[in-house]
Amino acid sequence: MTRFLVRRVVAAVPLLLVVSAATFLLVALVPGDAARSIAGRNATPEQVAQVRTELGLDRPVWTQYIDWLGSAINGDLGTSLINQQAVTEQLNARLGATMSLIIGATVVAAVVGVTLGVLGARGGWLGRTVDAASLIGFAVPTFWLALVLVVLLAVKVAAFPALGYTPLGQSPSQWMASLFLPVVTLAVPATASVAKVTRDAVSDAMQRPFVRTLRAAGVPERAIIARHALKNAAVPILTIVGLTFIGALTGAVLIEQIFALPGLGGTAVTATAAGDLPLIQGVVIYFTVIVIAVNLLVDLAYAFFNPRVRVS
Amino acid sequence: MLQGPSAEHWLGTDTLGRDVLSRMLYGISPTASGAAQALIVFLALGIPLGVIAGYRGGLADQVISRVADLALSIPPIIIVLVVIVVSAGRPVAAMASLGVLGAPGLIRVVRAASAAVRDELFVTAAKVSGVSQLRIMRTHVLRRIRGPVVVQASLFGGVALLFQAGLSFLGLLDPDRPTWGAIMGEASTVITQSQWLLIPPGVAITLTVLALGFLGDAVRDASADTDAVATAKASREAASPRTSTATSAALPDPSDYVLSVRELHVHTTSGVPLITDISFDLAAGETVGLVGESGCGKSITALAVLGLTPGGIRIAGGGVYFDGTDLVAGGEAAYRRIRGSGLGYISQDPMAALDPVHTVGSHLNEVLKLRGVGSSAARRERALELLSQVHIADPQRVLKSYPHQISGGMAQRISIAIALAGRPRVLVADEPTTALDVTVQSEILSLLHELQETTGLALLLITHDWGVVADICDRAVVMYAGDVVEVAPAHTVFTAPTHPYTAALLAADPSIEHSGRLPTLPGRVPAPGLWPQGCRFAARCRLATEACSEARVPLIKTSEALSRCLHTDLLKLEKRA
């Protein structure tokens, strides 16, 4: 198991290299750069050039990249060009909101989605309802849903705050309240995907011959679904939950904007708008590391649920 | 400004007093073209790379798959954001990059579908006959991947539309063009004054994505193989549960037997008969062989006895009596009481019969718990006892094993142990040795025989192997095209079969000694729904006369047997001659 972990972590290194180098290269192609925005609109070309030299942006891209890489290995992702704050510091401060949002949405999606999927797998009207609901859940744009929820639950009935974020350490109850609407919004499409995949996977498992053996041995239907079909369906379900998490990362960029949550997504948008390379680079690295970590967890979970993976 | 719907402005007006409906219509083009751009890149990359990886395999496959896996771990939003900066907000660049980032998903699907084609016989045949690789890819491979590609494309089209709308909503894509997302972004700024503006773009996006989803589902359903049982309405007549009067008088009282099947009819839900008017009995400790070619309804009979007919198939009439109680009349509840404790079952494919994600011990533990074996220590002890009862040499180790770690023969022993856990009085065994090696076959048969002697178990053995009947059966029930055609004691069926079908099967059996060339039985069993009105075997029968085809033949009692034949006398004479 340790060897598996080590191998996977080592395999992640080239991915990080590729992604960071690609970002660097892409941003280097930008015609206008951060120097221009820092120097201001009315700056002369000379002034811009000076800012550029000060920031080291006039050096060749590869030199810049190697430099960045050198300090990145030591955990230093540089400083923001716009506000001179350390990138890691700035991003760590915003990690809490994003992770609360994404983990919350994924947990809700996994629990509700699997429950609905199992109910749907029994077929009949319930199955058709789950099918229809998951189709609609997938089709509704999250940002629209967010606005509708804000109108209904924050503006018309002031049940939840429409905007802002209270950190967990400050007040757990307000933390929950501030996350409620964003998490629900983000969880709806995710729940739809999880429910659909669960329904299909559990229905498939119920067609397998061992189910007949169990039925013939008198095992009740409920136990067959809970102990056997669901466990056999675990691999596709875990896959979709992992994908859901990655999808929630994308959704978070929108949701954080709408609900004014101080998270990584918002940083990503503002940093891209300002052409703040170190900050963009930092967000890319954070996002990629999160994805790698989730994929690793999913792989470990595969091994837990599927004995054949464990052996090989 | 900001008016609701009216006769003049069907969808109201926006912040600048512009007509929302016309802006929505005008927004179709940039919205749809954004999604289309992503989709084109998605397909242009995904299909060729997927086909090459799947169809060619080897190094190309390794490189493509590795890169695709890598790309799947990049969160698309962040790359698209970077591209937006680089391209100064040009929508084409953003949507194209989304297409690139989505392509690995399609590559995986196409790769799997085309790899499956590569190994198929017709492709090998085409290669051997010199058809060029390119042509094979174009004709065979493309035809196969069409279905999955359309499904993936419709899903991705929805994703791209939502993505495009989201980016426009944030004002990141060319904010001056009125895409649906941009209209909604505008609506969000005046949300406290008017909520109506949210409705048109939201509904439009949702319905479009839904439509794409439905399209994908429709294509998937259309490309899936639809089982053509529909051909069979033709002769429903022949099989309605009414022809039984001729036999019922001769049948013994079910309460004398541990298991009695009476005039059992099983149909598909669309009404096609699969078995008709099946009756036989099983006494305590007795072994009855249910014999016949494939497709005669043996397995369906076995499953109906257990009340476990698969979906789309139901018991249409008759009864299954266990200890004199009719399970069919009692419904699922009656069956549930008897399954496991009264009736046990072992299947044809022992490896598939065990749940691959549970250990042998977990299987036994679960079943023993149901039987009320209290403590886990007691269950473990009983599990070990059951395993040694089925002659498993190293029960301690096997308890901890998963199904993929044991052999087929051992898996069948474990299936038997699971079935025995509830101390059933009848064991239904559906071709228990078919999937096993010849040496293992006889071991399993002798195990079954031994268990019968030690526990008094009655055995209903489904088989097409006369050797098995000769070895352990007391009686044979011969089935043909959903009918019982002969019921005879094992000691007379070999020497004096009373039905021409039995005689023909015996004559064609290689395990029985023959003088000269082994005769074959020409023709095949007619499919359900295509059965003739009279004797169903008539078309293949040497002795058939016109009378055979006129009306349904009843089971007729001969000295030792029951036979559904008008010419038992002829058969007897022939044998003697």
Automatic annotation (TrEMBL), chain A:
> What top-level branch of life does the organism fall under?
Bacteria
- Major location (coarse): membrane
Domain ABC transmembrane type-1: start-end pairs: 95-298
Supply the PROSITE patterns for this chain.
Answer: ABC_TM1
List where the protein spans the membrane. 101-121, 133-155, 175-198, 237-259, 279-305
Q: Which GO terms describe its cellular component?
A: plasma membrane
Single biological process term from Gene Ontology: transmembrane transport
Keywords linked to the UniProt accession: Cell membrane, Membrane, Transmembrane, Transmembrane helix, Transport
Which membrane topology term applies here?
Answer: Multi-pass membrane protein
Its subcellular locations are:
Cell membrane
Q: Give the UniProt family note.
A: Belongs to the binding-protein-dependent transport system permease family.
Q: What name is this protein filed under?
A: ABC transporter permease
UniProtKB/TrEMBL annotation, chain B:
- The regions listed as transmembrane in this protein's record are 34-55, 67-86, 92-110, 149-173
Could you tell me which InterPro entries the record lists for this protein? AAA+_ATPase, ABC_Ni/Peptide_Import, ABC_transporter-like_ATP-bd, ABC_transporter-like_CS, MetI-like, MetI-like_sf, Oligopep_ABC_C, P-loop_NTPase
Question: What are the record keywords, sorted?
Answer: ATP-binding, Cell membrane, Membrane, Nucleotide-binding, Transmembrane, Transmembrane helix, Transport
- Could you give a single Gene Ontology term from the biological process aspect? peptide transport
Q: Which residues form the ABC transporter domain?
A: 259-506
Domain ABC transmembrane type-1: residue ranges: 28-216
Q: What is a GO molecular function of this protein? A: ATP hydrolysis activity
The record's annotation in PROSITE patterns points to: ABC_TM1, ABC_TRANSPORTER_1, ABC_TRANSPORTER_2
- Localization per Swiss-Prot or TrEMBL: Cell membrane; Membrane
Q: Give me the Gene Ontology terms describing cellular component.
A: plasma membrane
Topology class, membrane: Multi-pass membrane protein; Peripheral membrane protein
Which family, according to UniProt? Answer: Belongs to the binding-protein-dependent transport system permease family. Belongs to the ABC transporter superfamily.
**Known NCBIfam families for this protein?**
oligo_HPY (TIGR01727)
Give the protein's recorded name. Answer: Peptide ABC transporter ATP-binding protein
Its ancestry begins with:
Bacteria, Bacillati, Actinomycetota, Actinomycetes, Propionibacteriales
